Structure prediction request, 231 residues.
Amino acid sequence: MGFIKVSSFLFVIFFLINGGSSTTFTVVNQCNYTVWPGLLSGAGTAPLSTTGFSLNSSESRVISIPASWSGRIWGRTLCSQNPTTGAGGKPPATLAEFTLNGASNLDFFDISLVDGYNIPVTIVPHGGAAGVGKCIAAGCAADLNVVCPPQLKLTMEDAAGVAVACKSACEAFGTPEFCCSGAFGTPDTCKASEYAGFFKKACPKAYSYAYDDGTSTFTCSGADYVNTFCP
Prediction:
């Protein structure tokens, strides 16, 4: 009996140390059109059981995410191709980014417009440890396509000139000062542009450019997450 008790105790310790628990992501489509969510695991992170699927309007899907996972989720629109290619999100795309069980055992998450914007997305944590981290909703719930600056607007021939996405300044112009690269590759040298200001004013709880960390990164411990398109 003593051996069984010790073995059980050691198993529990091993389970806790190795992060045996998982996190639940609920992906919800509240848009009035079909969205094809894509999921991409970060470098050094095991791939998920799915890299993409389709969600009709008002549908949702629950995914079990392993401990210590990092990666991104984004919504594809106007698709007709295979939704399970495993490729990363092609800009412009609104990105939901996660690093689970990171520094100080916290989950880090954000909504990023650094690669541009295509649809509204929010991340809402549920059940996180009280008083731990900056555990509040992140996201961009605004429809930026209707107010996108002309220089950033992405249109399609069959969309009658209506914007289907809003590019980042980096993608639109490709210069180091907008891409935070080269001589502009540090927080001191790469500052928010007027275009980053446009994104930030519309979506204050989302990344507007590469070094927009202070008001854009959120943390929780032990939470599950609801990722909603068109909240």
